[in-house]
Specification:
ion channel; two-stranded antiparallel sheet; 4-stranded mixed sheet; transmembrane helix; mainly alpha; chloride channel; CBS_dom_sf; transport
Length: 600
């Protein structure tokens, strides 16, 4: 039986016997399972490449491993150009450079319909990038692959846009849950990133997808964890001030991280070809790796070594080995790592690599937290703090600052440490870091490009509804245009008598709007035949209260113009010419309809 007939039969059975609610629950299980498999495949492929390179190639023994990222980026370049000819993110505008922003854009402007190619592109390109030493993470590619799976599954099963959005959020939660085995943090991240209303209708599918994904991960990987930390020291209230200092430090570091991210992308955007970007980026990464070897790859082993106190092993073999018996040299090396992790990560992206932001952010935060603890312990205050605890909380502080997801940061660290012993210091550091960065910069590396173009959904329902509305849906074109030289008699014969409107645009020979006429403007003289030939349209026309510019005005701006002008109709100008009108009544009706769809 053909595949289409099988799907049709399944849909008929579904409409007969399965309610919409239960159907969404079943799809959540499927999305969790598929995303979990994608995440496991991604990790296994990456670690296989790393294992082969570590054991089978002499680069590491001769300290020539810094050339590997160039090879990895070149392989990604070749595959993208010759095998994946439509690029890494087909159908996504080029101004969007990362996985999560592309998903947010797709949900808003493309109804969540993602190319099926995004299922396997990240599973191949990200392991090549990270396995060969690119300083990025695997979570972003896992989210992209899982989201594409859920999008295409919903397309096959004729799922509506709202349910498709929920399923993509489920895929995001499932990817995080599979990677970290932290289902609660996964749910919170999906809510914070996709601006979902935390209702039972959305919470239960997210929970089901997370559980399904975690079980899949356990089935294939057993108890293996991306991070595995066993806390030995509890929170000491006397350390509160130092955790506040850490919050300040991670807040400043988050601002640096974000600014460096956009600055490096701006630098690479100057190069005209991807191959030149690859060469420049590969050489830059190689130089950084030669002096700071821990920048190689995701950096998870680096964070584990810091947590366990093996900072010399974390730093690896580097040109400053003979000085590392001095703790201040170690501190400076860790500061260097903190500074250059953001540079190495963004350079990997800008050079054409494929990966994620969250894990590198956590690794950078762990280094910063460890630095703060070492400084406190060695400046002669006579007070010792837990370097392991500061290492973990530094991770949370940077996550909260960089991606503006404070609850995700708190629950993620709490879950990967197996408890809530550090819940209070986590809240202190995260709150301070988030407040600093949120006050300094409204948007994150995920949302800045979207917000500048008016393509960002937020938890502000009014803003989100206006963002989702399209100007084309409220433009009316059934107005009869008049010309300035037209006589009053011709206007009545050719315009008023044939129109059901009480508003008439006046345009010149180039279709440029030169004014408008309301029926009220001529009501008192429209039956005076002596004026039919002696007066013209130009006599009665006047300027509209405001204009709507098709190319640049967002729906938020349109609504504001109606509010300020108190007009009932405003003309739309497209390419300098008259295009139609927007009426307040139609605008408010469309707004209410979209609001009901958004909140139901």
């Amino acid at each position: 039986m053909p595949t289409k007939n099988i799907i049709r039969q399944l849909l008929l059975l579904r409409y007969k016997y399965i309610s919409q609610k239960n159907f969404v629950y079943l799809l959540s299980v499927a999305v969790g399972l598929l995303t979990g498999i994608a995440a496991v495949t991604l990790k296994n492929f990456t670690y296989t490449i790393q294992s082969i390179l570590e054991k089978g190639i002499v680069f590491s023994h001769n300290q020539l491993y810094f050339v590997l990222p160039v090879i990895g980026l070149f392989l990604v370049f070749v595959l993208t150009k010759y095998m994946f000819k439509n690029g890494i993110t087909p159908s996504i505008p080029p101004f969007i450079k990362r996985a999560i922003p592309s998903l947010l854009y797709s949900l808003l402007r493309q109804k969540g319909l993602l190319s099926y190619k995004l299922i396997y592109h990240p599973l191949i390109l990200a392991p090549l990038t990270v396995g060969f030493g690119g300083s990025v993470g695997l979570l972003g590619p896992a989210i992209t692959s899982g989201s594409s799976l859920s999008s295409n599954l919903s397309r096959i099963l004729h799922v509506d846009k709202k349910t498709r959005t929920l399923l993509i959020a489920c895929a995001t939660a499932a990817a995080v849950a599979s990677m970290f085995k932290s289902p609660i943090a996964a749910i919170v991240l999906a809510v914070e990133v996709f601006s979902l209303d935390l209702t039972f209708a959305s919470l239960l599918p997210l929970l089901i997808a997370s559980i399904s994904s975690v079980l899949t991960s356990y089935f294939f990987l057993g108890d293996e964890l991306l991070f595995n930390f066993n806390l030995t020291e509890k929170f000491n209230p006397r350390d509160t001030a130092f955790y506040m200092i850490l919050g300040l430090g991670t807040g400043i570091a988050s601002i640096y991280f974000t600014k460096m991210y956009f600055a490096i992308y701006g630098f690479f955007d100057r190069f005209k070809t991807r191959f030149i970007k690859l060469l420049v980026g590969g050489i830059a990464i190689g130089i950084m790796l030669y002096f700071i070897p821990p920048l190689y790859g995701e950096g998870l082993s680096f964070t584990k070594d810091l947590f366990e106190g093996n900072y010399l092993h974390a730093l690896g073999s580097n040109p400053f080995d003979k000085y590392t018996d001095n703790i201040w040299v170690v501190i400076m090396l860790l500061i260097g790592f903190t500074i250059f992790k953001a540079i190495a990560m963004t350079t990997t992206f800008a050079a054409g690599g494929v990966g994620g932001v969250i894990v590198p952010t956590m690794v950078m935060g762990s280094a910063l937290g460890n630095v703060v603890a070492k400084i406190i312990n060695n400046i002669g205050l006579g007070h010792q703090v837990s370097e392991a605890n500061f290492t973990l909380i530094g991770m949370a502080g940077l996550i909260a600052g960089v991606i503006h997801a404070p609850l995700t940061a708190i629950f993620l660290i709490a879950e990967i440490t197996g408890g809530y012993i550090l819940f209070l210091p986590l809240m202190i550091t995260v709150a301070i870091s988030y407040m600093i960065t949120k006050n300094y910069m409204e948007h994150t590396i995920y949302t800045k490009e979207l917000a500048e173009r008016g393509d960002l959904l937020t938890h502000d329902k009014d803003q989100s509804v206006l963002t989702m509305m399209h100007l084309d849906t409220v433009i009316e074109n059934d107005f009869i245009p008049l010309h300035p030289e037209m006589s009053l008699g011709d206007m009545l014969k050719q315009g008023v008598s044939k129109s059901s409107r009480n508003l008439f645009p006046v345009v010149d020979g180039y279709q440029r709007l030169v004014g408008i006429i309301l029926l009220d403007d001529i009501r008192t003289i429209m039956f005076d035949q002596s004026l039919y030939e002696s007066t013209s349209v130009e006599t009665f026309m006047h300027n509209p209260p405001d204009f709507i510019y098709y190319e640049k005005d967002t729906m938020k701006v349109v609504m504001k113009k109606f509010q300020d002008s108190e007009a009932w109709n405003l003309p739309v100008i497209k390419n300098g010419c008259y295009y139609g009108f927007v009426s307040k009544s139609k605008l408010l009706t469309a707004y209410r309809t979209e609001l009901i769809n958004f909140t139901s």
